């Protein structure tokens, strides 16, 4: 006799056992012959890439925080480079979607600082000697993002000289026109008075702010209806720089609360260096035009 023959049937709305639900839903449970979640996402590689060097409990937090940041940066670069190409090809609706995503990723990175700020100075000090001379200053993806956003500085190529593959990527980002360079070229093609030396130039040189470029943006912002897509582009650039400034600020504040004014493992003055980075302006005329509106 079936052992469950006398078990009363459950009422239709009574809670069911989790195993029953899985069976009733007919979820696939055998992955010996087909691709699983972990296979698709290569989780063996990703989740076995955490190798703490110290006995400190907090090193796992430090590693995961940086690895997740690098993953978000990977997506950000993917979106930024594609958006820059779309601006060059005058496919602005596509570019806007990607640039909105870049801002959201940046916001994600800003919020992530709250996790790291649970690490106190004694906790970080326990693991810091194990970092030796490694530092976020040497992040190739971060440098590509700075270059793609126009903050060009050839000195920042040097930490990658020992890795030909990474150097080639960072160098390509240094040589390419930035998102802002492509935005100005677009303004020029639309007949706005962008000076010739901002339409064609040596893109490896740092961007120089110009009154004429500000005047061109002013035409856009004084008549948004007439230049609706350029106006939207200007505001997308504003969103990105706004979020990036918040990231820089949260970085320097987290660093100050964790190591005070100690020198950085990357050799810079630490907080003094990061504070200088707060003065970087990526899209200067986008900000200065507002005074004249
Ligand atoms: C306790 C946490 C952290 C401390 C104490 C810290 C400290 C520092 C210091 C002192 C520098 C200056 C370079 C140097 O001399 O080392 C720096 C640069 C940098 N850090 Fe961090 N950092 C922390 C967390 C992070 C995180 C979570 C990220 C995210 C990826 C990050 C990314 C960077 C980048 C990209 C730079 C280069 C910035 C630039 O050149 O403008 N840092 N950090
Ligand atoms: N520059 C930091 C070390 C540091 O933060 C770091 C070291 C290795 C890998 C990532 C790091 N994060 C950001 O700079 C320090 O001076 O303590």
From TrEMBL:
Keywords: Dioxygenase, Heme, Iron, Metal-binding, Oxidoreductase, Tryptophan catabolism. It comes from the Bacteria. Its EC number is 1.13.11.11. Pathway: Amino-acid degradation; L-tryptophan degradation via kynurenine pathway; L-kynurenine from L-tryptophan: step 1/2. Pfam families: Trp_dioxygenase. InterPro entries: Trp/Indoleamine_2_3_dOase-like, Trp_2-3-dOase_bac, Trp_2_3_dOase. Heme binds at residue 251. This is Tryptophan 2,3-dioxygenase. NCBIfam families: trp_2_3_diox (TIGR03036). Homotetramer. It catalyses: L-tryptophan + O2 = N-formyl-L-kynurenine. Substrate binds at residues 62-66, 124, 128, 265. Its cofactor is heme. Binds 1 heme group per subunit. Signal peptide: none annotated. One of its GO terms (molecular function) is L-tryptophan 2,3-dioxygenase activity. Belongs to the tryptophan 2,3-dioxygenase family. Heme-dependent dioxygenase that catalyzes the oxidative cleavage of the L-tryptophan (L-Trp) pyrrole ring and converts L-tryptophan to N-formyl-L-kynurenine. Catalyzes the oxidative cleavage of the indole moiety.
């Amino acid at each position: 006799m079936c052992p469950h023959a006398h078990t009363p049937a459950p009422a239709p709305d009574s809670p069911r056992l989790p195993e029953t639900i899985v069976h009733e839903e007919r979820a696939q449970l055998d992955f010996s012959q087909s691709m699983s979640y972990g296979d698709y996402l290569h989780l063996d590689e990703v989740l076995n890439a955490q190798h703490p060097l110290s006995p400190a409990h907090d090193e796992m937090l430090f590693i995961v925080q940086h690895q997740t940041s690098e993953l978000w940066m990977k997506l950000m670069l993917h979106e930024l480079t594609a958006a820059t190409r779309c601006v060059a090809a005058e496919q602005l609706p596509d570019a806007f979607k990607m640039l909105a995503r870049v801002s959201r990723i940046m916001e994600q990175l800003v919020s992530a600082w709250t996790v790291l700020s649970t690490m106190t100075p004694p906790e970080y000090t326990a693991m810091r000697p194990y970092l030796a001379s490694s530092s976020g200053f040497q992040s190739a993806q971060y440098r590509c993002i700075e270059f793609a956003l126009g903050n060009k500085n050839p000195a920042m190529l040097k930490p990658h000289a020992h890795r030909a593959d990474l150097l080639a990527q960072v160098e390509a980002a240094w040589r390419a026109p930035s998102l802002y360079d492509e935005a100005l070229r677009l303004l020029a093609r639309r007949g706005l008075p962008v000076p010739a030396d901002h339409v064609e130039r040596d893109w490896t040189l740092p961007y120089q702010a110009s009154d004429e470029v500000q005047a061109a943006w002013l035409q856009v912002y004084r008549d948004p209806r007439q230049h609706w897509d350029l106006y939207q582009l200007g505001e997308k650039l504003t969103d990105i720089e706004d979020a990036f400034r918040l990231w820089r600020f949260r970085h320097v504040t987290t660093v100050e609360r964790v190591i005070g004014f100690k020198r950085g493992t990357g050799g810079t003055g630490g907080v003094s260096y990061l504070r200088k980075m707060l003065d970087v302006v990526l899209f200067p005329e986008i900000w200065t035009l507002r005074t004249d509106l």
